[in-house]
C-alpha cells in the first residue's frame, strides 16, 4: 500500500505545463500520451491499495491516447463525476457522463477526448485478480450505467474511500480485495443490465436514457434501435410533435433549468456539459432563447426565491 500522492500543473510555469502533464500521465498510466494545450489546468492524485490502483484526474479539455500494453492485462474503470469523456477505439465511440462507468483494457489501444472541467475517478485492477471468467470476456468499451444498484453501490464505496483517503492512509491493503470483489459484481450486473435495458427501447426512451451524451442524435438512435431515420423522425413527432434534435435540446434545457433552480453548486459550464451540451456559449444562447434570460440570471432569480 502506498500513501496518496498528488501532481498539479499549477506548480509549474504555464509554458511548461503541457510537457509536465504529459510526463505525469505517462508515468501514472504506462503507454499513455497526453495531447493538451500549453495552458492545461490539470491535477492527478494516486493511491494504491494492494493490487488496486485508485486515481482522480481533474482536467481542462485535452486528449489522451494509449497504446496496447504487451506486459500486462489490467481493467481500468473510469467513473464520471463531472463533465464527460468520450472513449474511442477502432470504429466505436462511447461517451461517459455523470455517474456512469466505462471499462477499458490496457492490453488494447484506445483514446479519450476529455471535456472541459472534467473530474473522473479511475479504478485499476489486474484481470488476473478478478478470476478466470473475467479473463475470458472482452470488457473493453463496456458501459456501466448509474441506474444499476450494484454499479451505484460500487461507485459509492470507491468515492467514499477516496474522499477519506488522507484519514485512511494506514488502512490495510486487503481493502483492495474488497473493492475488487465489488467491482466484479458491478461489472457483471451493470453490463447485463445495460444490455437488457437497451433491448426493445423506443427511440424516445433511448434518447431520454442517453440525454447527457453529447453525441446523441438521429444517427445514434437509428443505430441503437434499428429504425430508419424516417422511422425515428415519426416516433418523435408522434410523441411530442418535435424533431429528434428539437426534443433532445428541449429535454436538456429543461434539465439544466432544474439544476440551476436548486442548490446545485456546479458552475454553469459544468451544468452545460453534464446535460449534454459540448459548447457552453451555444448552451447559453439556447437557454436564453428558451427561457428569456441567461443561465446566470435564471439561477440568481430562483435562488432568491428559495432564500
Please report the distance between the alpha carbons of the first and last residues. Answer: 47 Å
Show unreliable segments: 195-199
What's the gyration radius in Å?
20 Å
Shape: globular
The number of E-state strands comes to 12
Task: Spell out the blueprint of helices and strands.
Blueprint: E1 2-8, H1 17-28, E2 32-35, E3 42-49, E4 52-59, E5 62-66, E6 74-82, E7 85-89, E8 92-96, E9 101-105, E10 110-114, E11 118-126, H2 132-135, E12 143-144, H3 149-163, H4 175-198, H5 203-209, H6 218-225, H7 229-240, H8 244-261, H9 268-274, H10 280-291, H11 295-306
Helix pairs in contact: 3-4, 6-7, 8-10
Give a concise summary:
This protein has 307 residues and is α+β, with helices and mostly antiparallel strands. 43% of the residues lie in helices and 23% in strands.
Structure description:
The protein has helices spanning 17-28, 132-135, 149-163, 175-198, 203-209, 218-225, 229-240, 244-261, 268-274, 280-291, 295-306; strands at residues 2-8, 32-35, 42-49, 52-59, 62-66, 74-82, 85-89, 92-96, 101-105, 110-114, 118-126, 143-144. The protein is an alpha+beta fold. The strands form 2 sheets. A 7-stranded antiparallel sheet has the order 1-3-4-11-6-9-12, sandwiched between helices. Strands 2-5-10-7-8 form a 5-stranded antiparallel sheet. A hairpin with a 2-residue loop joins strand 3 and strand 4. Helix 6 (218-225) packs across helix 7 and helix 8 crosses helix 10 (280-291). The chain is globular, with a radius of gyration of 20 Å.
